[in-house]
Write a structure and sequence with these properties.
The chain is built from ten helices and five strands; from the N terminus they run βββαββααααααααα. The protein is of the alpha+beta class. The termini are far apart.
């Protein structure tokens, strides 16, 4: 089992990357989100991987953020969804946002995603609701400012646990998303436990 790769990015394709690991070239299927986060050809990169094995198919999938891989593996367990469809689905939006849509039963959001119709959206909700990052859902109800912040942090590659921690830290802070995101990043960088001031005009 190949759990991850670290090496030089040799080539970027529309849906894959080729990574040179000590002279061995691995072709890894990736989502547009992961591909965009890998950098330029020649850069040193690192991805976690999932190996899909069937009698007639051996394929390696790569992920820049563990939250995307975790969601990919859960979506892959949904009946009727194969690895390519699962990758397209989890790469279509931030993991936290997709989890929110599934947990809240939002068929309208899900059916607009690549390859997802109403029946597939309903099946995703039926089979996965209640299984995706439960702590984050309570911390960031769908449509709330907390969910907005969770989506922005998810797009930057933070895990569900990290996102839930930052959302709780900034609960009650009434500031624009950009400022709340800046504070969340500082919170991660400094490990601060100081309670933020919840004033709208505060710009410390």
């Amino acid at each position: 089992m190949i759990a991850g790769l670290s090496g030089k990015l040799l080539r970027r394709g529309p849906d894959h990357a080729v990574i040179d690991v000590h002279g061995v070239h691995y072709r890894v299927s990736v989502s547009p989100r992961t591909l965009g986060a890998l950098g330029a050809e020649g850069d040193e990169v690192s991805v976690t991987t999932y190996m899909y094995v069937r009698e007639d198919n051996l394929q390696l999938f790569g992920f820049k953020e563990t939250a995307e891989q975790d969601l990919f593996e859960q979506v892959l367990n949904v009946s009727g969804i194969g690895p390519k469809s699962a990758l397209a689905l989890v790469g279509s939006m931030a993991p936290a946002q997709l989890s929110q849509a599934i947990q809240s039963g939002n068929v309208d959001v899900l059916k607009r995603l690549p390859g997802i119709g109403v029946k597939t959206a309903q099946r995703l909700i039926l089979e996965l609701k209640g299984k995706l990052a439960p702590g984050l859902i309570e911390a960031a109800p769908a449509g709330s400012p907390q969910a907005e912040l969770a989506g922005a942090l998810g797009a930057l590659g933070y895990s569900a646990t990290e996102i839930a921690s930052a959302v709780e830290y900034l609960r009650g802070v009434e500031l624009p998303l950009e400022e709340r995101l800046r504070r969340a990043l500082r919170y991660f960088a400094e490990g601060s436990r100081e309670q933020p001031v919840a004033a709208t005009g505060d710009r410390r």
